[in-house]
Specification:
- With about 220 residues, the protein is an all-alpha fold.
- The chain is built from twelve helices and no strands.
- It has two domains: about 55 residues, no CATH class; about 120 residues, no CATH class.
- Helices cover about 55% and strands about 0% of the residues.
- The two termini are about 20 Å apart.
């Protein structure tokens, strides 16, 4: 799996290809590599063993973004519709769990890009319908662990006083933890494309998922 991921990530369209051909090539590579990461996540979650080399899966080339086409050709099929997954709705659901989320006045969310957007990018199209219900079930199932996490590493704790574990107690962290247990390889790949890994590493250490990807 690691070898296939690396080989596909490093492939290039034939020399001299037209721009539209290159756009389709790179779009296909992004889809296939994301699918390979989901296979790795599914295999690991099902208990059939961890991928032989997670490092090779995680250290992959960031594919160039294809420019949006100016218009859709009449003979091209329309893309399949994907159920919307609004960040505001997800946050509203997360706010309903006081044992997992710190009080608003005590939170110290680190500055930087939107952590929620990165976490939600690891939610596959096939998972978006009903994802809020999935998140709520996850939080209910892990109530004791989340309560302990907030108490041990959240705002006011000794570890938090040193400026670490800043994401603990944030509502978006529930999505990060759910993805950490469900699609850890895909989450890590998307995170390292957009964000510094230290916040994810700290959260992984504090949570203790079944599959550890930090080194």
């Amino acid at each position: 799996m690691a070898g296939a991921h690396t080989w596909i990530s490093e492939s290039s369209p034939p020399h001299g290809s037209e721009p539209r051909y290159e756009d389709g090539w790179f779009a296909g590579i992004r889809d296939v590599t994301s699918y390979l990461l989901r296979i790795a996540d599914t295999t690991a979650t099902a208990g059939r063993g961890r991928a032989a080399s997670s490092a090779m899966l995680l250290v992959h080339l960031q594919q160039p973004r294809s420019p949006a086409p100016e218009k859709t050709m009449a003979d091209e099929p329309a893309p399949a519709s994907v159920p919307p997954l609004e960040a505001t709705d997800v946050l509203a659901a997360a706010e309903r769990f006081p044992w997992a989320v710190a009080a608003p006045g005590t939170r110290h969310c680190p500055d930087g890009p939107d952590f929620l957007d990165v976490a939600l990018s690891a939610v596959g199209n096939e998972e978006r319908a009903g994802y809020i219900e999935r998140l709520e079930a996850f939080v209910e199932e892990h109530r004791d662990r989340l309560e302990q996490l907030l108490r041990a590493y959240g705002p006011g704790s000794r570890p938090a006083s040193h400026g670490r574990y800043a994401l603990v107690g944030q509502p978006e962290t529930l999505v990060i933890l759910e993805r950490m247990e469900t699609n850890p390889f895909l989450l890590r790949g998307r995170w390292e494309e957009e964000l510094e890994p230290v916040f994810l590493d700290d959260l992984e250490f504090a949570w203790g998922p079944r599959i550890r990807l930090s080194w």
